[in-house]
UniProtKB/TrEMBL annotation:
<dbReference type="GO" id="GO:0010411">
    <property type="term" value="P:xyloglucan metabolic process"/>
</dbReference>
<keyword id="KW-1015">Disulfide bond</keyword>
<feature type="active site" description="Nucleophile">
    <location>
        <position position="111"/>
    </location>
</feature>
<dbReference type="InterPro" id="IPR044791">
    <property type="entry name" value="Beta-glucanase/XTH"/>
</dbReference>
<dbReference type="InterPro" id="IPR010713">
    <property type="entry name" value="XET_C"/>
</dbReference>
<dbReference type="InterPro" id="IPR016455">
    <property type="entry name" value="XTH"/>
</dbReference>
<feature type="active site" description="Proton donor">
    <location>
        <position position="115"/>
    </location>
</feature>
<keyword id="KW-0052">Apoplast</keyword>
<feature type="region of interest" description="Disordered">
    <location>
        <begin position="308"/>
        <end position="335"/>
    </location>
</feature>
<feature type="compositionally biased region" description="Basic residues">
    <location>
        <begin position="314"/>
        <end position="326"/>
    </location>
</feature>
<dbReference type="GO" id="GO:0071555">
    <property type="term" value="P:cell wall organization"/>
</dbReference>
<dbReference type="GO" id="GO:0004553">
    <property type="term" value="F:hydrolase activity, hydrolyzing O-glycosyl compounds"/>
</dbReference>
<protein>
    <recommendedName>
        <fullName>Xyloglucan endotransglucosylase/hydrolase</fullName>
        <ecNumber>2.4.1.207</ecNumber>
    </recommendedName>
</protein>
<keyword id="KW-0732">Signal</keyword>
<keyword id="KW-0326">Glycosidase</keyword>
<feature type="signal peptide">
    <location>
        <begin position="1"/>
        <end position="20"/>
    </location>
</feature>
<keyword id="KW-0961">Cell wall biogenesis/degradation</keyword>
Length: 335
């Protein structure tokens, strides 16, 4: 009698192979030197190259911040950098690692953000992720997190995976946020070619306690360090917005976006322990949650302790909302 294959064993093998591919995806990609993939955006001497261009220091002082941008536009990809943030008093300082096409599509730009928000001495940096599509800046999709480490002590890897169907944010190869495309979103999902930007700048008006604590330049220069720079995606023609031979890249990106059960467990654990804000539960901004939100009552109750007013309880103190210079409408938590 012919022996039938064990379905459970076959499924386990597939999951094992997928897990191995996904977990090693970023490690197999080439690390670029600055000149191979980037150009200075602004800041003059506040951008300094080290290790033959394999590391970049960006600084903020009273004169200016600084930044760099990818030489190519990309339609989907995996983008990563190891980052060490400034230490000590960093209130008002914003370090950003993000995708955008705002220089091309001024009225309907797309954006995928990692933002690092400084703090007063003795308080931790906070990390914020955000997503815009087709100029939907009135609908901020921010989430905010604390970290389980001090990002000023050493380098940690921050990565963005952007495909046609999903966006995943990673910290040290741990998925921290998955954003899936839905039909109801329409153009709100980022779908036009973007460049990768990295900047440090003065966000005193909003970044720390809604502008209560500002950048203090007696602690300048504030220096953010970047290394292990990865640009892996479909580079497109900046005029035609078209790209050839992207099929294999697109397939590898889609496969790398599969979150295995063990990885999902880690992501869920991170979000339970470290997420302090999600736009989906912000009853001050949205009387009805945006269409892609899946409401979890336990999560809503847990987040309420960080800001009972925003998440549906307590009395609001009169205060001024501060807007980001790059058009976000996030209202920053108190420290």
């Amino acid at each position: 009698m012919m022996k039938l294959p064990c379905v459970g064993s076959s499924l386990l093998l597939v999951l094992t192979l997928v897990s191995a591919f996904v977990s090693g995806f970023g490690k197999r990609l080439p690390i670029l030197s600055f000149d191979e993939g980037y150009s200075q955006l602004f800041g003059d001497d506040n951008l300094v190259l080290h290790r033959d261009g394999k590391a970049v220091h960006l600084s903020l002082n009273e004169r200016t911040g600084s930044g760099f941008v990818s030489q190519d536009l990309y339609l989907h990809g995996y983008f990563s950098a190891s980052i060490k943030l400034p230490a000590d008093y960093t209130a008002g300082v914003v370090v950003a690692f993000y995708m955008s096409n705002g220089d091309i599509f001024e009225k309907n730009h797309d954006e995928i953000d990692f933002e690092f928000l400084g703090n007063i001495r003795g308080k931790d940096w906070r990390v914020q992720t955000n997503i815009y599509g087709n100029g939907s800046t009135s609908l901020g999709r921010e989430e905010r997190y604390n970290l389980w480490f001090d990002p000023a002590d050493d380098f940690h890897q921050y990565s963005i995976l952007w495909t046609d169907s999903q966006i995943i944010f990673y910290i040290d190869n741990i998925s921290i946020r998955e954003f899936m495309r839905t039909a109801a979103m329409g153009g709100d999902f980022p779908s036009k070619p973007m460049s990768l930007y990295t900047t440090i700048w003065d966000g005193s008006d909003w970044a720390t306690s809604g502008g209560k604590y500002r950048v203090n330049y007696k602690y300048a220069p504030y220096v953010a360090e970047f290394s292990d720079l990865i640009l892996h995606g479909c580079a497109v023609d900046p005029i035609e917005f078209s790209s050839e031979r992207c099929d294999s890249t697109a397939q590898s990106l889609e496969l790398s976006g599969i979150i295995t059960p063990s990885q999902r467990t880690k992501m869920d654990s991170f979000r339970r322990k470290h997420m302090t804000y999600s736009y989906c539960y912000d009853q001050t901004r949205y009387k009805v949650p945006p269409m892609e939100c899946v409401i979890n009552p336990k999560e809503a109750e847990r987040l309420k302790k960080f800001d009972p007013v925003t998440f549906g309880g307590g009395r609001r103190h009169h205060g001024k909302r501060h807007h980001r210079s790059r058009a976000s409408q996030s209202e920053t938590d108190a420290i």
